Amino acid sequence: MPDCHPVRVRFAPSPTGSLHIGGARTAIYNWAFARHYGGTFVLRIEDTDPERSTAESTEQIIRSLAWLGLAWDEGPQAGGDSGPYFQTERQALYERELAVLKAAGSAYPCFCTPEELARKREQATASQGATGYDRHCRSLSEAEAQRRIDAGEPHTWRLKVPTQREEVSFDDLVYGTVRVPIGQLDDFILVRSDGKPTYNFAACVDDALMGITHVIRGDDHLSNTPKQILVYEALGREVPAFAHLSMILGADGSRLSKRHGATSVEAFRDAGYLPEALVNYLSLLGWSLDGATTVIDKATLCESFSLDRVSRNPAVFDEAKLDWMNQVYLKEMGAARFVDAIVPYLEKAGFATAADVAARRNWFEGVYPLVAERVHTLAEVCPLIAYLFAGDTLVLDDKSVEKCLAPAGTRELLERCASTLEGLAPAWGHAAMDTALRALAAELEVKVKAVFQAVRVATCGNMVSPPLLESLELLGRDETLRRIRTALPHAGL
Ligand code: GLU
After folding, report:
1. pLDDT digits (tens, 9 = 90+) for 25-36
2. Catalytic residue among 258, 348, 447, 449
3. Superfamily, domain 1-76+246-332
């Protein structure tokens, strides 16, 4: 589809909060599109709203994008030839482009005060007339306008919408042809009375000067597009292609919002989702590879991404599917990456510090097979392995004691288990333990399960736990024996 120009796309967040999953999906589509066509992915920070923009949000957005692994080719930190990449640093460019519009007679100063504008809007609403600006200042003579500017009268600059045209139309790459009658577009403000550009003007100037070929963004901007097309045309710039992405809904069918729980990328990170799982999941919210494949790694995504497989129907965010997807990636991540990823959770739970982990990496890698198949998120890992770190504070679950330790004869059984396991030194491995405990069960003529469950409750505190013998391997011989012997008073005579 992109024919002559090399593809240049951008993600242009306003730093007025953290990066949410809707924005993350927009970023993913831009990134994958750029990668697919060997193009350039630009990150631009739209920080023109001084009251709502914060440096903290900018940092958070940048951190989230980096965590997702969506490397941008130009933008903050990356640099590039089309900078600066913060709108607040581009004021001179907006002034220069406004001068182009003034010279072409495509923009005019408007001296209507906010109060006058509000009154006009009220009157228009009351009489059910058009609610847009009534173009009052458009008819001022040039000399009159200049006189008022020279006298220091506050004014904005508005686009002189070409009213002789019938409509503005464009072929959206997702929505198809969109036509808007010119009568629906009022002479919107380009530059405010403080000299700062509005979003519609700044975004156009930036997209034009940055050579953006495809604008891929949320469909909440669909109504801005005709206005922006008029600005490109007035500036004499090429109009880029547009692709608007449908919104993401919660399970209840309403637009996804905080009401639905975690929606920021960092909240998902903290809840223990893996970046590649989130990218995979979000990429499928509105796009599909072949309608069937669900597990798609980044390389495949970039290789196969195209806008013609993006749906215009709203996508529904389904946390259960994301959990499933995350588990797929958890199972594949391998012990080494698991250990790196689990450190903050271990620290938070007070189980180990980063230094402890570094000193005993092998041991922590041994935890991975115990949990990999049993959790959906990293946050679920620590509760599952708390028993490994409990030491002498291990609490035995009442029900488990009643079922597996209380039956008559269990004390002797446990004593025999302890001496059997003690005799295994130095071969402390699960295969040796398995053989020895099975032999013991045969000798005592009890079920293998009864032996394992008694040892499990004594050492793990619960009749439900990750695999027993691998757990004992991690606990070590001394701690295993100490736990079994500590549990003896709970066992039936
Ligand atoms: N800054 C806008 C936003 O965060 C994006 C505008 C655009 O992509 O054109 O919604």
Report:
1. 999 999 999 999
2. 258
3. HUPs (3.40.50.620)
